[in-house]
Design a protein that fits this description.
The complex is a heterodimer of chains A (252) and B (399). With 252 residues, chain A is α/β, with parallel strands linked by helices. Chain A has a single domain, classed as 3-Layer(aba) Sandwich (Rossmann fold). Chain A is 37% helix and 26% strand. In chain A, strands 6-7-8-3-9-10 form a six-stranded mixed β-sheet, sandwiched between helices. Chain A has a four-stranded antiparallel β-sheet with strand order 2-1-4-5, covered by helices on one side. Chain B is built from 13 helices and twelve strands. In chain B, strand 3 and strand 4 (110-112) form a beta hairpin. In chain B, helix 2 (18-54) crosses helix 11 (311-352), helix 2 packs antiparallel against helix 12 (362-388) and helix 9 (253-296) crosses helix 11 (311-352). The longest helix of chain B is centred in the last third of the chain and has 44 residues, at 253-296. Classes of the chains: A alpha/beta (252), B alpha+beta (399). Chains A and B meet through helix 2 and helix 3 of A and helix 1, helix 10 and helix 13 of B.
Chain lengths: 252, 399
């Protein structure tokens, strides 16, 4: 079997808040393979943000091992983490996180700038990435001159421009109306078909259902890991979601 | 990401909040302007003083010998003085005895009471930089032969001989002297001025005034900066002869000028340091605004870090931004300093009636620029390090 792109081996992350220790991630293990479209789903406080930070190399686990493309991220220093983020992870955030004072072409260029790509090459690739998300005509616009959906497409272009191994999207539709959200999700489907590995972090079961596979977290633990169709919770509304998830966890 | 791009980013960030940037720069601008002005003023005063002193002869030593009397065995002859200069050619250059003659000067039937008569050596006109415009100057042979010749100032040539002085005679102390040369105009050709002077070979003057010794000498030195040392050399030589320092004195305009110049330098340095305090205050202002900027841009720093910016990129970016801010302030300060110097010159000259020019030096401008850039780097470092050390997760969460 091929090697996993992402491998969590008994990953735990503890935070100390005053006297109490909060187990944000508690002994989580899973593997994500190249080309997969995985949604990590959970309510707030379930540990999905912690998982995202660790996957995105913004944070390192307290215990356990996180292997990204076979490399142990937990042993890396800050500089190496920066390099890994730059080269291997394409971030897409709920609030787009574009730099407001830079036009969208400059925004998309940023990862390439930190990768040391020459200015002309950066320009060319950033323009290409924006054309791919249908914004080739707006390169000189500032982010706030664009709609939310367009801004999110800019951030997708920015995530893709460095040709990362992994696209990590944190609530990518959270700030969008449902119609635009659907469009953005369609874009993710296309990326998946094109062979990209996508990890989607969301609390929204409907959005999660678009993924190929769902990892459901509760209280820092994995309660479901399997095909989206098998996650009964995702087909239900929020109120019953938790109970159903418990059941599905029991089944597993 | 190269430094040039960091610089472009810095300019962009500064332009994004122009008023704030300007206010931040104010301390540095004032400091640099003040330093440039003070150095310029000090420089102007020095130049002015040097010019004033130069006309008095900064490169000459005036030796006055009272001596122990002609009968004493300890006395200074003209030959002794020439020996002293010859032995110390590393610092002393030329010498001329000066024999002041008193007594009436008669031309035809008229007598002048304002005209001064001095006996000098063949080097004297070189020493005082007088030019002979017609005829010739005094030569060594005139001195050796004790010739009855003289060189006259322009006033005498013009007023008494109507410009036709060569070959005419002047009666000094009962003897007739033939005019062999006429000097160019040195003063305003007024009576009693340098131009109303007659110069004769010193040997002739000694004979005419029947004095046994020469009391005054003018000695030129090779380097004005070493005026004190040169003066010391002459004093030491004279002490060897007289064994008592009461019998001679050596004055040096150059030494006085050097003393005053170094005093002005001290004053300028002290004032510059005081003005420089404003640079430190300005630096603290920059640090303050950079800290605010880091707080405001926490989110941006988080995004940049998430996208792969290493700590040193963030650090460099903020340091360069601080340095750029203060360097721009430095340039504005230099411009203002030069502008105000020109205005100050325009005000001071008519007010004091002196040709005093406030002249900033390129060196002070260069130093002001380097210091202000350095201040930006030093005071920008703390905020930059704070920015670089931000945890990307916390920074991203920041709104």
């Amino acid at each position: 079997m091929m090697e996993a792109l992402i491998e969590f081996r008994n990953v735990s992350k503890y935070y100390t808040m005053g006297d109490t220790v909060v187990k944000a991630a508690d002994d989580i293990s899973f593997k994500i393979y190249k080309g997969e479209f995985v949604a990590i789903v959970g309510q707030s406080g379930s540990g999905k943000s912690t998982c995202m930070n660790i996957i995105g190399c913004l944070d390192v686990p307290t215990s356990g091992v996180y292997l990204l493309n076979g490399r142990n991220v937990g042993e890396m220093n800050k500089n190496e983490l920066s390099e890994i983020r730059n080269a291997m992870v394409g971030f897409i955030f709920q609030q787009y996180n574009l730099l407001p004072r830079f036009n969208i072409l400059e925004n998309v260029e940023i990862p390439l700038m930190y990768a040391g790509v020459s200015k002309s090459e950066r320009r060319r690739r950033a323009r290409e990435a924006l054309e791919n998300v249908g914004l080739g005509s707006k390169t000189k616009n500032l982010p706030n001159q664009l709609s939310g959906g367009q801004q999110q497409r800019v951030s997708i272009a920015r995530a893709l421009v460095g040709k990362p191994s992994l696209i990590l999207a944190d609530e990518p539709t959270g700030a969008l109306d449902s119609k635009t959200g659907v469009e953005v999700m369609a874009l993710f489907q296309n990326l998946h078909k094109a062979g990209h590995t996508i990890v989607l972090i969301t609390h929204n079961n409907e959005i999660a259902a678009d993924a190929q596979r769902i990892i459901r977290l509760e209280d820092g633990r994995v309660v479901y890991d399997g095909p989206a169709s098998g996650d009964t919770a995702s087909h239900n509304v929020f109120s019953s979601g938790r109970r159903k998830a418990d059941e599905s966890a029991g089944i597993l | 990401m190269n430094p040039l791009e960091s610089f472009e980013l810095a300019i962009k960030n500064i332009l994004a909040s122009k008023l704030r940037a300007l206010l931040t720069m104010l301390g540095i601008i004032i400091g640099v302007t003040a330093v440039i002005l003070i150095v310029g003023l000090g420089n102007g005063v020095k130049v002015y003083m040097t010019e004033q002193f130069s006309s008095l002869g900064v490169n000459t030593l005036t030796v006055t010998v009272t001596g122990r009397g002609a009968t004493s065995s300890r006395r200074l002859t003209v030959d002794n003085m020439y020996d002293i200069v010859a032995k110390n050619q590393d610092c002393l250059d030329k010498v001329s005895p000066i024999v002041r003659m008193t007594g009436p000067v008669k031309i035809g039937n008229e007598t002048s009471s304002t005209t001064s008569v001095s006996g000098v050596s063949e080097d004297y006109f070189d020493i005082v930089q007088y030019s002979v415009v017609s005829g010739r100057g005094i030569e060594y042979s005139d001195i050796a032969m004790r010739d009855y010749v003289c060189v006259v100032g322009s006033y005498i040539a013009k007023e008494w001989f109507s410009g036709n002085a060569l070959g005419q005679t002047i009666k000094v102390g009962g003897s007739y002297l033939t005019v062999i040369g006429v000097l160019g105009e040195e003063a305003e050709s007024e009576s009693g001025s340098t131009d109303d002077s007659i110069f004769v070979p010193y040997s002739t003057a000694i004979r005419l005034s029947s004095t046994g010794t020469v009391a005054n000498y003018t000695v030129t030195i090779r380097d004005v900066a070493k005026a004190s040392e040169s003066k010391q050399v002459v004093q030491t030589a004279l002490y060897e002869i007289f064994q008592n320092e009461r019998y001679y004195s050596v004055r040096s305009m150059g030494e006085m000028l050097n003393t005053m110049t170094s005093m002005i330098n001290i004053i300028v340095t002290v004032l510059s340091i005081i003005a420089g305090i404003s640079l430190v205050v300005g630096g603290i202002g920059i640090m303050n605004i950079m800290l605010v900027s880091v707080t405001e841009r926490t989110k941006e720093i988080g995004i940049r870090k998430a996208l792969g910016a290493k700590e040193r990129y963030i650090l460099t970016q903020f340091v360069i931004e601080a340095a750029t801010t203060s360097a721009i302030a430095g340039i504005i300060g230099i411009g203002l300093g030069y502008g105000l110097s020109a205005i100050a010159t325009k005000i001071i000259q008519p007010m004091l009636g002196a040709k005093l020019t406030v002249a900033p030096t390129f060196g002070s401008a260069l130093m002001a620029f380097s210091i202000s850039a350095a201040i930006g780097i030093i005071f920008g470092f703390l905020p930059a390090r704070k920015a670089a050390a931000l945890n990307p997760i916390d920074a991203l969460r920041n709104e």
